[in-house]
């Protein structure tokens, strides 16, 4: 068995263990393969194992891979910070954008989404621990931004994405994840199409699933350690 196949199976094992420990439906957590910095061939290998959803952070690198893998039926998620001059390329080439954090970006993605494509699925990124250096909207502004996105016909509001601050204990991780879950419930109450709570990475996926994540974004555990960029 290849290393990638072993790691892929290990991740699925961890997801199903965490899902059953939390007494949740096994289908309720999806795996997003976070492939930033890895070449198209590495993604192709993972796709051959049955993985369809890939997450990318850097636009130019992502566009090259989307092009190189156009023969596969993949679903592309943009998960990095968004500069407003990049919205045209993002809206034209991705299926999901998980890092929408302000009205201007939402408006531009809506303007630039081609009519030939289905509405763009979006998650609002929440700065759950209100860190100065992190992107994401503050929890208080969530509903205002959601209300705005709901008026845009080429965006489909699907949920929330969070990247908590680094924590020293599982209890502290749970605190952030639980606050995110609370916001997710509020959002879902107002917008019933909302079904995605994107939280959990290599280091904290089990805790995220215990706290209600519906999508874990996994890079290192799947592809290996990234080179510093
Ligand atoms: C890089 C990245 C990940 C994956 O992190 P790992 O620790 O490698 O699993 C997940 N989400 C976002 C937003 C990222 O930038």
UniProtKB/TrEMBL annotation:
<comment type="function">
    <text>Pyridoxal 5'-phosphate (PLP)-binding protein, which is involved in PLP homeostasis.</text>
</comment>
<feature type="domain" description="Alanine racemase N-terminal">
    <location>
        <begin position="12"/>
        <end position="226"/>
    </location>
</feature>
<protein>
    <recommendedName>
        <fullName>Pyridoxal phosphate homeostasis protein</fullName>
    </recommendedName>
</protein>
<dbReference type="Pfam" id="PF01168">
    <property type="entry name" value="Ala_racemase_N"/>
</dbReference>
<feature type="modified residue" description="N6-(pyridoxal phosphate)lysine">
    <location>
        <position position="36"/>
    </location>
</feature>
<keyword id="KW-0663">Pyridoxal phosphate</keyword>
<dbReference type="InterPro" id="IPR011078">
    <property type="entry name" value="PyrdxlP_homeostasis"/>
</dbReference>
<comment type="similarity">
    <text>Belongs to the pyridoxal phosphate-binding protein YggS/PROSC family.</text>
</comment>
<dbReference type="InterPro" id="IPR029066">
    <property type="entry name" value="PLP-binding_barrel"/>
</dbReference>
<dbReference type="InterPro" id="IPR001608">
    <property type="entry name" value="Ala_racemase_N"/>
</dbReference>
């Amino acid at each position: 068995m290849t290393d990638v196949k072993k790691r892929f199976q290990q991740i699925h094992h961890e997801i199903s263990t965490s899902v059953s420990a939390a007494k949740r439906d096994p289908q309720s957590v999806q795996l997003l393969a976070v492939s930033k910095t890895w070449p198209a061939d590495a993604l192709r290998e993972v796709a051959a194992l049955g993985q369809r959803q890939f997450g990318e952070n850097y636009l130019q690198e992502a566009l090259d891979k989307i092009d190189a893998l156009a023969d596969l039926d993949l679903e592309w998620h943009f998960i990095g910070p968004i500069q407003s001059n990049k919205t045209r390329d993002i809206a034209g080439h991705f299926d999901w954008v998980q890092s929408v954090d302000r009205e201007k970006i939402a408006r531009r993605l809506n303007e630039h989404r081609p009519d030939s494509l289905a509405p763009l699925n979006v998650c609002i990124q929440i700065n759950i621990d209100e860190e100065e250096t992190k992107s994401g909207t503050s929890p208080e502004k969530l509903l205002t931004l959601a209300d705005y996105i709901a008026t845009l016909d080429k965006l489909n509001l699907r949920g929330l994405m969070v990247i908590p601050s680094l924590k020293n204990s599982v209890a502290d991780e749970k605190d952030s994840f639980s606050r995110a879950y609370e916001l997710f419930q509020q959002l879902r109450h107002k917008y019933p199409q909302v079904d995605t709570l994107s939280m959990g990475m290599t280091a904290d996926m089990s805790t995220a699933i215990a706290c209600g994540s519906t999508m874990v974004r996994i890079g290192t555990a799947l592809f290996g350690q990234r080179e510093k960029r």
